[in-house]
C-alpha cells in the first residue's frame, strides 16, 4: 500500500494562514484593546407585576452624560463622555483625551406608560423604571382547557 498525496492546485500555498490573518475578528479577537473599541453596556431587563426595570452597566459616566428618549415606541438610551487633559511645562505640552459613547434601543411593549418612565444613575448602573398602564396591571388571566 502506498501513500498518495493530493497535489494542491491553489495559487497561494498558505491560503488558510493568510485567510486567518486577514480575518480581523479572529486576528484581533483576543486583544483586549480592540475589544473595548466597540463597547456597548450590558443590559438586564426585569418584569415585575406593575413595571419593567432596565439596568445598564455604564461605569465611569455621570448622569449628565446620558440622553434617554422615546420615539415611535422605541426607547433609546445613549451616553457620551469626553475627557481632555492638558499639561504644559518647561519645554513640552502633553495632551490626553478619551471619548466614550454608546447607544442602546429597545422596543417598548404596548403596556408601558411612557409618561411615567423614571431614570436613576447610581454606582455605575443606569436604572430605568417603566411603569405598566393600569389596565395591564389589573387584567385578568383566564386559563383555557385543551380538549
Would you kindly provide a written description of the structure presented here, covering whatever features stand out?
It is a single chain. The chain is mostly beta strands and 147 residues long. The chain has a domain at 42-138: Immunoglobulin-like. Helices cover 15% and strands 42% of the residues. It is built from four helices and seven strands; from the N terminus they run αααβββββββα. The strands form two sheets. Strands 1-2-7-6 form a four-stranded antiparallel beta sheet, with no helix packed on it. A three-stranded antiparallel beta sheet has the order 3-4-5, with no helix packed on it. The termini are far apart. The model is unreliable at 1-10 (pLDDT under 50).
List the helices and strands and how they pair.
Layout: H1 15-22, H2 24-28, H3 32-35, E1 43-47, E2 51-57, E3 66-71, E4 74-89, E5 92-107, E6 118-122, E7 125-131, H4 134-138
Antiparallel strand pairs: 1-2, 2-7, 3-4, 4-5, 6-7
| CATH topology description of the domain at 42-138 | Immunoglobulin-like
- The secondary structure category is mainly beta
What's the architecture of the domain at 42-138, going by CATH? Answer: Sandwich
According to DSSP, the number of beta strands is: 7
Q: How many helix segments?
A: 4
The CATH C-level name of the domain at 42-138 is Mainly Beta
C-alpha Rg (nearest Å): 26 Å
How many angstroms separate the termini?
Answer: 68 Å
- The coarse silhouette is rod-shaped
Characterize the biggest β-sheet: 4 strands, antiparallel
Oligomer status: single chain
Widest beta sheet: strand line-up: 1-2-7-6
**Beta content:** 35-45%
Helix content: 10-25%
Low-confidence spans: pLDDT under 50, at least 5 residues?
A: 1-10
State mean pLDDT (0 to 100 scale).
79
Order of helices and strands: HHHEEEEEEEH
Amino acid at each position: 500500500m502506498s501513500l498518495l498525496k493530493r497535489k494542491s492546485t491553489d495559487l497561494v500555498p498558505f491560503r488558510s494562514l493568510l485567510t486567518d490573518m486577514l480575518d480581523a475578528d479572529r486576528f484581533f479577537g483576543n486583544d483586549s484593546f480592540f475589544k473595548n473599541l466597540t463597547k456597548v453596556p450590558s443590559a438586564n431587563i426585569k418584569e415585575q407585576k406593575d413595571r419593567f426595570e432596565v439596568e445598564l452597566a455604564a461605569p465611569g459616566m455621570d448622569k449628565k452624560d446620558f440622553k434617554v428618549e422615546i420615539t415611535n415606541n422605541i426607547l433609546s438610551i445613549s451616553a457620551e463622555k469626553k475627557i481632555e487633559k492638558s499639561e504644559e511645562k518647561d519645554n513640552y505640552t502633553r495632551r490626553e483625551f478619551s471619548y466614550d459613547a454608546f447607544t442602546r434601543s429597545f422596543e417598548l411593549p404596548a403596556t408601558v406608560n411612557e409618561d411615567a418612565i423614571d431614570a436613576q444613575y447610581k454606582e455605575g448602573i443606569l436604572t430605568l423604571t417603566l411603569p405598566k398602564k393600569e389596565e395591564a396591571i389589573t387584567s385578568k388571566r383566564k386559563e383555557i382547557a385543551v380538549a
